[in-house]
UniProtKB/TrEMBL annotation, chain A:
Pfam families: Arc1p_N_like (PF21972). Positive modulator of ATM response to DNA damage. One of its GO terms (cellular component) is catalytic complex. Its main location: cytoplasm. The keyword Nucleus applies. Part of a multisubunit complex that groups tRNA ligases for Arg (RARS1), Asp (DARS1), Gln (QARS1), Ile (IARS1), Leu (LARS1), Lys (KARS1), Met (MARS1) the bifunctional ligase for Glu and Pro (EPRS1) and the auxiliary subunits AIMP1/p43, AIMP2/p38 and EEF1E1/p18. Can interact simultaneously with MARS1 and EPRS1. Forms a linear complex that contains MARS1, EEF1E1, EPRS1 and AIMP2 that is at the core of the multisubunit complex. Interacts with ATM and ATR. This is Eukaryotic translation elongation factor 1 epsilon-1. It comes from Grus japonensis (Japanese crane). InterPro entries: AIMP3/p18_C (IPR053837), Arc1-like_N (IPR053836), EEF1E1 (IPR042450), Glutathione-S-Trfase_C-like (IPR010987), Glutathione-S-Trfase_C_sf (IPR036282). Residues 57-176 form the GST C-terminal domain. One of its GO terms (molecular function) is translation elongation factor activity.
From TrEMBL, chain B:
The keyword Aminoacyl-tRNA synthetase applies. Catalyzes the specific attachment of an amino acid to its cognate tRNA in a 2 step reaction: the amino acid (AA) is first activated by ATP to form AA-AMP and then transferred to the acceptor end of the tRNA. Plays a role in the synthesis of ribosomal RNA in the nucleolus. Pfam families: Anticodon_3, GST_N_5, tRNA-synt_1g, WHEP-TRS. Belongs to the class-I aminoacyl-tRNA synthetase family. This is Methionine--tRNA ligase, cytoplasmic. Keywords: Aminoacyl-tRNA synthetase, ATP-binding, Cytoplasm, Ligase, Nucleotide-binding, Nucleus, Protein biosynthesis, RNA-binding, tRNA-binding. Residues 854-910 form the WHEP-TRS domain. Coiled coil: none annotated.
Length: 181, 915
């Protein structure tokens, strides 16, 4: 059968997010279960479990609630893409899964600047972190094939404070494979 | 806003309930699965909420969240945590449990078992917090979401274990809510559930990340394997139950084999091996063995098949060889034709006829094609400058002239090519040319020749090629080579030669000339068939009924894809043209090339002297058939493949299956009561069988062999897991299980025998004999059926393969060269020995190899002495000293050769050929 599932989104990404949000260091994390689900230790109670949950909690802690969307619709869309991120992007391990994800996103982003339409949200940040290892490995031709994903990704990686130590993924402005679909 | 829901789909439940609970102003649109799921493409059964803004939500949890947000209920850390847990943990497990319920028909607690840990998680949270609902004392989005995921699996709280008291109470109170009850009634109607069930049956079962991580199945080498659907499993069980009676009867063609109306008529040729040399392993896998495997497969499919081949005997190489060996060309041909035929017989090549090109039919058919081309204006006449030896009264074609290479000044360049720099040479450009026969100096004289007008035939060639490529299986390299030939532009090709040994040109002014071999040789396919049956035209002038497969190595492609089809198209006599052109890449030997003159590599006549059975050679050559890319023969790999794939995998399985029948059931196949696990195995085997057919129909012979090995791997695993040797000692139920496993395994072995027949005919026959497989079952269908029913008696079962030992393989590697360092040491001496080609072919009777211990010792000594000699040379030692040590080395090698049971001349022949 397929290789064991990749470990879930990790504590590293939450540390990146903390830095991006300008939060002071000091949160303590653990992991739980086979999928290594992150757990945020709190003073009272059993702590918060789950990548999406902790990320949303950090955003509120930093008082940047606009990153979770302003209207009900935006909030639901952000929720949806965070869920997509933890179930699909982190769950898929095969090449075929990755291809479907890129294809889905490429269609979705055709008429959008950000995942939630016109506003930059937590969904963009976490999707960027989740797809970084995929985008790094794409060929020039594949980047052109998923043109909308590439445009979006390039935009997010240049958003102040997002990229941090992650490598800059290069996109070529001129199209090379005009007939490739 | 519109909420589109597919009734029956489990995810519909929570969104309908949430819409109700939040009193959202939503218009429900009921439907079945979406034909074109809204982007992003998730699943046709997933609901979609279309907002007035045009935004579409496709995540059930996000839709529920939206309804609660819209009426002002903001998510909290706790509700977020429940929603994330539901999406990542509970939903996948619930989907798997639902699948086992609907598709496998598991009921109640059994189906809920898989959810155990997750249900306990809810119970703990509820009881620890002591709240009525998941995220507090009031209902929230979390309750609707989690309930919506659980309800399709649980239906009511009675299927919950009674110790989960808090969970039971919570679940019951949720289920009793009016919005929830209404949602369940409208979504989970019996009709909609049926539809959802039939959808699920076509899907692979959902797999759980957690389960995968702890699975005991061995990891597959290449990604994930195909997941079986219920339909496939049912079909495989049905096919099994129908038994051998449903197999078509093997069809025995009349002799001679002729096309039959209404049948698939397959004509197979393999490139005609040139007569003046002994074929090496690369030649054998490139043409005759590949074609043989395919021909055997075709016959097992009940396709009416004719497989012909023969030696290509005309041409200058034969003439020069005859001069070398002091024989007439015809004597040379007779001698080598017999050598070829012997080698192929040993390799068990199932030609319907193995002929030769030096026959009256060849003259008749070649001249007929020539006359037709002439009459239709496809031949041109031109004058070329050529060297003529005035003493011998002949033009000196190609290899009849030698001189100094105009490029690198090598003094022994031949008329067509320089052996040193490898460049092609036009004979008139040679400096100081010499007639090879009389050593006289030739003069340049004009001579008339005939040319095939390929540019004029191109307009016929292209549409034919297009059609053949569209309908036939041409290997990628065949298409590529052909395309590049045409792209470079076709030029007229000379079809005559100033030689005597060939088919005479029947035209005044050319009667002292013969046809050039490339024009003549492919016509050999027709003439060889004519020597097999006088009704040869029913094969060769019958494109409507006959499918033609040409097998060759890639260097032969242009002759079969361009030049020969042009001859036949121009001759315009309704010829059968190639439909499937199957070209292999090259097989290398260890790290280099096969070389007769350097004695490197295994040649056809030596393979049998290695003591390794022909079927093992066939297996290994087919296993590494250069399909798609070059491959390399390696002795150690041969040993590894024999010991791992044949001995431990295939042989082990077939032997165990047979032994169990003999030992535990007195040689009689026992009764079988198939469990779902057995049926899955049948489906798995059927899948491999289908793959095998698919690959062989595309002539991907090497890849299809992997399917056979996969089946036996499945079989070994099956036996290992079920342990019939333990169960046979158990109670009634265990003994029945042992019987079933043994019966299924021995039937797998029976089918493997048939599938293996194209690859290893002798082993196949041995299995047939051991298991007493009825001959009527030697047929390949797409079903894996029970051919050895309960009560069938098997014969005596014995091991099929033998282990190859390291010592044995090392000795063989040394014996057959392949760039071993000590070969270089003997080179200076070896030059005095006769050229390799003049050695008599290895005698058939050889001294039996003596004990391995001695061979090992000698091998070590040879290596040691070789090192010593090299060192002396490196230190520029005196020549006399070197010579003495070299003589010692040669003596040791001779002893080693004798110990290994072969003629001692062989090591000496490793030297370079010297003229």
């Amino acid at each position: 059968m397929a290789a064991a599932a990749r470990p879930g989104p990790g504590v590293d990404e939450l540390a990146l997010l903390e830095k991006l949000l300008g939060l002071p260091k000091g949160n303590k994390y653990g992991v739980q279960g086979e999928r290594k689900v992150p757990v945020l230790q709190t003073n009272n109670g059993p702590g918060l479990t789950g990548f999406m949950t902790i990320a949303a909690h950090l955003v509120k802690q930093a008082k940047k609630d606009q990153l979770l969307g302003s209207t009900a619709e935006e909030k639901a869309v952000v929720q949806q893409w965070l869920e997509y991120r933890v179930t699909r992007v982190d769950g898929g391990s095969s090449k075929e899964d990755t291809r479907i994800i890129l294809k889905d996103l490429n269609i979705y982003l055709e008429d959008k600047v950000y995942l939630a339409g016109n506003i930059f949200t937590l969904a963009d940040i976490l999707m960027y972190y989740g797809l970084h290892h995929v985008m790094v490995d794409l060929t020039v031709q594949e980047k052109e094939k998923y043109l909308n994903v590439s445009r979006w990704f390039n935009h997010i990686q240049h958003y102040p404070g997002v990229r941090q130590h992650l490598s800059n993924v290069i996109f070529i402005k001129n199209r090379l494979y005009t007939n490739a679909h | 806003m519109r909420l589109r829901v597919a009734a029956g789909g489990p995810a519909a439940l929570k969104v309908v309930a949430a819409a109700g609970a939040a009193a959202a102003p939503v218009r429900l649109v009921w439907g079945g699965p979406l034909e074109r799921p809204l982007a992003p493409l998730i699943s046709p059964w997933v609901p979609a909420l279309e907002l007035d803004s045009g935004t579409v939500l496709f995540s059930p949890n996000a839709i529920c969240q939206f309804f609660f947000l819209a009426r002002g209920e903001e998510p909290t850390d706790l509700t977020n945590q429940w929603l994330e847990w539901d999406a990542t943990e509970l939903q996948p497990a619930a989907a798997a449990a639902l699948y086992t319920q609907l598709v496998h028909g598991k009921k109640g607690l059994e189906a809920v078992e898989a959810l155990g840990k997750l249900l306990a998680h809810i119970e703990q949270n509820l009881s620890r917090r002591g709240t009525a609902y998941l995220a507090g004392d009031t209902k929230s989005v979390a309750d609707v979401v989690v309930w919506g995921t659980l309800f399709p699996v649980l239906q009511d709280q009675t299927s919950l274990p009674s110790e989960l008291q808090a969970l039971r109470t919570w679940f019951q109170s949720m289920t009793l809510l009016e919005v929830c009850r209404k949602a369940a009634d409208s979504v989970l109607t019996p009709k909609a559930l049926l539809e959802f069930k039939s959808y699920l049956q076509k899907q692979p079962p959902p797999s759980l990340a957690m389960e995968r991580a702890t699975s005991n199945e061995p990891e597959e080498e290449e990604g994930s394997e195909h997941v079986l659907t219920e339909e496939e499993i049912t079909a495989a069980a049905d096919a099994w139950a129908r038994g051998a009676a449903v197999l078509p009867k093997p069809w025995q063609p009349q002799k001679p084999v002729l096309p039959v109306e209404g049948m698939r008529n397959i004509l197979i040729t393999s490139a005609l091996p040139y007569v003046n040399n002994v074929p090496h392993l690369g030649n054998i896998i490139g043409c005759v063995l590949s074609a043989d495997t395919f021909a055997r497969y075709c016959r097992l499919r009940n396709w009416n098949t004719l497989y012909v081949c023969g030696t290509d005997e005309y041409g200058t190489a034969t003439e020069t060889k005859a001069v070398e060996e002091g024989l007439t060309p015809q004597e040379i041909c007779n001698k080598y034709n017999a050598i070829h035929a012997d080698i192929y017989r040993w390799f068990n090549i199932s030609f319907d006829y193995f002929g030769r090109t030096t026959t009256p039919y060849q003259t008749m058919i070649a001249q007929d094609i020539f006359q037709r081309l002439l009459a239709r204006g496809f031949l041109l006449e031109d004058t070329v400058e050529q060297l003529q030896c005035e003493d011998c009264q002949r033009f000196l074609a190609d290899r009849f002239v030698e001189g100094t290479c105009p490029f690198c000044s090598y003094e022994e360049a031949r008329g067509d090519q320089c052996d040193k720099c490898g460049k092609l040479i036009n004979a008139v450009e040679l400096k100081n040319p010499q007639c090879k026969l009389c050593r006289g100096v030739p003069v340049v004289k004009p001579t008339k020749h005939l040319f095939l007008d390929l540019p004029k035939l191109e307009e016929q060639l292209e549409p034919w090629l297009e059609q053949s490529w569209a309908t036939g299986n041409w290997t990628a390299n065949a298409r590529y080579i052909t395309r590049s030939w045409i792209r470079d532009g076709l030029k007229p090709r000379c079809i005559t030669r100033d030689l005597k040994w060939g088919t005479p040109v029947p035209l005044d002014g050319f009667r002292d000339k013969v046809f050039y071999v490339w024009f003549d040789a492919p016509i050999g396919y027709l003439s060889i068939t004519a020597n097999y049956t006088d009704q040869w035209e029913r094969w060769w002038k019958n494109p409507q009924q006959v499918e033609l497969y040409n097998f060759m190595a890639k260097d032969n492609v242009p002759f079969h894809s361009v030049i020969f089809p042009c001859s036949l198209l121009g001759a315009d006599d309704n010829y059968t043209l190639v439909n499937h052109l199957i070209a292999t890449e090259y097989l290398n030997y260890e790290d280099g090339k096969f070389s007769k003159s350097r004695g490197v590599g295994v040649f056809g006549d030596m393979a049998k002297d290695t003591g390794i059975p022909a079927d093992i050679w066939r297996f290994y050559l087919l296993y590494l058939r250069p399909e798609g890319q070059d491959s390399a023969f390696s002795w150690s790999d041969l040993m590894v493949k024999n010991n791992s794939e044949l001995l431990n995998n295939l042989g082990n399985f077939i032997n165990r299956a047979g032994m169990f029948v003999c030992k535990f059931f007195g040689g009689t196949v026992p009764n079988m009561v198939l469990t779902p696990e057995d049926k899955r195995l049948l489906a798995r085997v059927t899948l491999e069988l289908h793959q095998y057919h698919q690959l062989l129909e595309k002539v991907r012979i090497r890849d299809a062999l992997r399917c056979i090995l996969s089946i036996s791997r499945h079989g070994n695993q099956y036996i290992q897991v079920n342990e019939p040797w333990k169960r046979i000692k158990g109670d009634e139920k265990d003994r029945q299980r042992a019987g079933t496993v043994t019966g299924v395994a021995v039937n797998m072995a029976s089918m493997l025998a048939v599938m293996l027949q194209p690859y290893m005919p002798s082993v196949s026959l041995a299995i047939q004999g051991q298991l007493c497989i009825p001959l009527d079952c030697f047929i390949l269908s797409h079903d894996f059926t029970c051919t050895l029913p309960p009560g069938h008696r098997v014969g005596t079962v014995s091991p099929l393969f033998q282990k190859l030992e390291n010592d044995q393989i090392e000795a063989l590697r040394k014996r057959f060269g392949g760039g071993q360092p000590e070969d270089l040491a003997v080179e200076p001496q070896a030059k005095q020995s006769p050229p390799a080609s003049e050695l008599p072919p290895a005698p058939a009777t050889l001294v039996a190899p003596s004990d391995p211990q001695l061979i090992q010792e000698l091998t070590e000594e040879v290596a040691k002495q070789g090192n010593h000699v090299r060192q002396l040379k490196a230190n520029k030692a005196e020549k006399t000293q070197v010579d003495t040590e070299v003589a010692k080395l040669l003596e040791l090698k001779k002893q080693l050769a004798l110990a290994e049971g072969k003629t001692p001349e062989v090591p000496a022949s490793k030297g370079k050929r010297k003229k």
